[in-house]
Amino acid sequence: MLAPHATPALSPDRVTAVLRILVLSTFVVLLNETIMVNAIPRLMREFEVTAAAAGWLSTAFMLTMAVVIPVTGWFLQRVTTRTAFGLAMALFFAGTALAAAAPAFPVLLVARVIQASGTAVMMPLLMTTLMTLVPPHDRGRVMGNITLVISVAPALGPAVSGVLLQLGTWRLLFLAVLPIAAAMAIVGQRKLVNIAEPQAGPIDWLSVPLAAAGFGALVYGLSGLGAGDEAPAVVPPYVTALVGAVLVGLFTWRQLALQRSSTPLLDLRALTFRHFSVALALMCLSFMALMGAFILLPIYLQEVRGLTSLQTGLLLIPGGLTMGLLGPQVGKLYDRLGAPRLVVPGAALTALCLALFALAGEQASPWVVLALHVALSAGMAFVFTPVFTSGLSVLPPHLYPHGSAILGSLQQVAAAAGTALVISVMTGRAATAAADGADPTGALATGVRWGFGIGAVLGGLAVLVALLVRTPPVPQQPVAPEIQDEDGTMTNKSAPTPT
């Protein structure tokens, strides 16, 4: 087990090389998460499927993430860094290759599930490695650089897909990614080092199906609520979401019981750290508001303002680039100023932008939308980097994988919940406006404004939670963890005990 606030025996250049490999690999897998957005209409025609069925290419990806991420806390403690990375990239590569050659829609859907399985391992692996390798006083800067990649990748997805679809078949979306994923996998296996030794331990097999069924049903049910009437189901979405919530409750009870006598699948003792719990609450509220905006903006720009999908993607890229490019600067400011001075103004700016979106009229200029989206992204940049850094920094190293898994799991739930909430409000208010005599475009614009209004309320709640954020103290003399050398031996360069 690593000592609290561990600093590695690796040289700074080697640490940079390890993190660069993981960051670039994460960029590749995250880019693929949103690259299908513009391909839905073409896939509907080619495979002769409905919009609801085609939408499963995105829903299944998110659903798989929700199912796999809770297990990563246990998994990352029991395999080496190289093994975890190799498995993640192998799954992603296999899924991408299968998708590129998919002869039928069900095969493509299975391929997306395989891709998502690899992606679900990469994010917690990156966060856990960062928290272990980077000393506390430098984590803000490094987390800021990682935010750049994590933010830019999803923003570039729709635009990249729009360009590739202009050039040829939808299979290019996967063929273009395939050699990059292969190259990253090969380089990673050669350059990565193993951080500490794996810890042998049993797995509670009852927790695995509880986690899979609970988080899966909850995200699926919330996604169904967000789909409105477009995807009627045999079981109503609210019933599925309720069953998922009950199963998640049982999973939580099981983990608490295991903490007293055995090894839990997901160690919830991370939630006993107040800084982490506050950061988690702020992340969930902010992500709900952000995902709501991401869903509403394309609807407004395409259905109300009449822009094409490619124009919409290009219009939204500056916001993603703003969030990414601000990440390193926000990280440096975090190391100097701490979390509260960044998080509170960032949350306030986010809430303000969402409120202005709610007040925007049916004929609002795309340039106004662009400016507000850039400002919204800047506000989020001042929230996410400090929240992730301060939240995870307070945990002892043996809880890093579990803290990362908790953040990742609830991020998927928050994304589904935010989408369901704003879409439900938008649909309901649009129907009311249409019943009152509004034309279809005007009714939809009214619904979109109400959806942004809900986002503004979530943003206001995030401001209140942001007031509780604190910066964890930084230890002066960290202890070095064990690093596996290239010959396979474990070394540990001792450091003075913290005073």
Describe what you observe in this structure.
The chain has helices at residues 12-34, 40-47, 51-76, 81-100, 105-133, 139-167, 172-175, 178-191, 207-226, 237-261, 274-304, 309-337, 340-359, 366-393, 400-435, 440-466; strands at residues 194-195, 483-484, 490-491. Mean pLDDT is 80; it is low at 1-8, 475-483 and 485-499. It is mainly α. Helix 1 (12-34) runs parallel beside helix 6. 74% of the residues lie in helices and 1% in strands.
Entry keywords:
mainly alpha; disordered N terminus; 3-stranded antiparallel sheet; disordered C terminus
In the predicted model, the low-confidence regions spanning at least 5 consecutive residues are: 1-8, 475-483, 485-499
What Rg do the Cα atoms give? Answer: 22 Å
Order of strands in the sheet with the most strands? 1-2-3
Alpha plus pi helix count:
16
In percent terms, what proportion of residues is strand? Answer: under 5%
Distance between the termini: 20 Å
- SS class: mainly alpha
Brief rundown of the structure:
Helices cover 74% and strands 1% of the residues. The chain has 499 residues and is mostly helical.
Topology:
Elements: H1 12-34, H2 40-47, H3 51-76, H4 81-100, H5 105-133, H6 139-167, H7 172-175, H8 178-191, E1 194-195, H9 207-226, H10 237-261, H11 274-304, H12 309-337, H13 340-359, H14 366-393, H15 400-435, H16 440-466, E2 483-484, E3 490-491
Antiparallel strand pairs: 1-2, 2-3
Helix pairs in contact: 1-5, 1-6, 1-8, 2-3, 3-5, 3-9, 3-15, 4-5, 4-8, 5-15, 6-12, 6-14, 9-10, 9-15, 11-14, 11-15, 11-16, 12-14, 13-14, 13-16, 15-16
